[in-house]
């Protein structure tokens, strides 16, 4: 019977230790808990840190689990399952709002549209499933950047291109938008990506309350926004209700 690889066993034990104990642990704590020499423990931690599985707090030098684990943990939720759970709710949202609906997930430093419900009228429309949207300017991207640590990191790493005069590219201003998104539970894009187009999005969570996607309605500014330029409150409420419904179907419970 083949032997287990000792270094991998130690790395796995280290991740379990960080997941089950205090939020942050020092090198000495980790080494003593796993009965390892400090040099050995440090070498494993450096490797895990390089791969994004572990992060080191700059001030204290202590270690904690990294954002890459969130990406791997969320991979169990197949995109097709997310889409299947959202089918009925997104159809209802398009019908009640009169606008097109998009379901998006984080993918390669952007938002991948995995489901698109056409606006329920006779206008000519193009199916956008498989299209990529930017993280920093779209409502879907802002929601993912606000709630998903991996998306947040990627939104900061990429060049925040100014698509219109309204696009927010400054880092401090962008972080303020994400704070606002978390505070109110939804994000907006009013002519920040496309002239004349507005959208509103809300996050979808799984049974562990982890963000796994976002849902948005998109339409002409004059329909999505009121006379004062504010998003119509009933549309915001409808998007949030849809996101909550899909989240509940994924096991997130009531929130």
Give structural notes.
The protein is of the alpha+beta class and 255 residues long. It has 10 helices and 8 strands. The strands form 2 sheets. Strands 5-4-3-8-7-6 form a 6-stranded antiparallel β-sheet, with helices on both faces. A two-stranded antiparallel ribbon has the order 1-2. Helix 6 (139-147) packs across helix 7. The mean pLDDT is 88.
Measured by DSSP, the beta-strand proportion falls in 15-25%
As an assembly, this protein is single chain
Count every helix, treating DSSP H or I runs of 4 or more residues as helices.
Answer: 10
Q: List the uncertain runs.
A: none
Let me know the number of strands. 8
Question: Could you give the order of the helices and strands?
Answer: HHHEEHHEEEHHHEEEHH
Amount of helix: 40-55%
Major sheet: arrangement of strands = 5-4-3-8-7-6
Computed Rg: 21 Å
Could you report the average pLDDT, rounded to the nearest whole number? 88
* CA-CA gap between termini: 49 Å
Shape: elongated
> Describe the biggest sheet?
6 strands, antiparallel
Q: How would you classify the helix and strand content by structural class?
A: alpha+beta
């Amino acid at each position: 019977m083949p032997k287990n690889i000792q270094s991998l066993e130690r790395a796995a034990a280290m991740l379990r230790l960080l997941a089950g104990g205090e939020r942050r642990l020092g090198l000495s704590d980790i080494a003593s808990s796993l009965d390892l020499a400090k040099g050995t423990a440090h070498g494993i931690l450096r490797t895990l840190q390089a791969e994004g599985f572990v992060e080191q707090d700059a001030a204290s030098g202590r270690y904690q689990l990294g954002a890459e684990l969130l990406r791997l943990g969320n991979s169990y939720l197949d995109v097709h399952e997310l889409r299947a759970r959202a089918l009925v709710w997104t159809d209802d949202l398009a019908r009640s709002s009169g606008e097109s609906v998009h379901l998006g997930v984080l993918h390669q430093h952007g938002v991948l549209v995995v489901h698109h419900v056409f606006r329920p009228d006779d206008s000519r429309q193009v199916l956008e499933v498989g299209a990529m949207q930017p993280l920093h300017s779209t409502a879907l991207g802002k929601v993912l950047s606000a709630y998903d640590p991996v998306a947040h990191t990627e939104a900061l790493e990429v060049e925040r291109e100014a698509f219109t005069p309204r696009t927010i590219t400054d880092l401090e201003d962008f972080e303020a938008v994400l704070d606002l998104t978390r505070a109110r539970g939804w994000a907006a894009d009013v002519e920040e990506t496309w002239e004349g187009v507005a959208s509103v999005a809300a996050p979808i969570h799984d049974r562990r309350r982890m963000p796994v996607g976002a849902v948005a309605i998109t339409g002409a500014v004059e329909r999505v926004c009121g006379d004062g330029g504010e998003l119509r409150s009933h549309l915001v409420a409808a998007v949030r209700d849809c996101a909550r419904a899909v989240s509940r179907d994924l096991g997130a419970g009531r929130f």
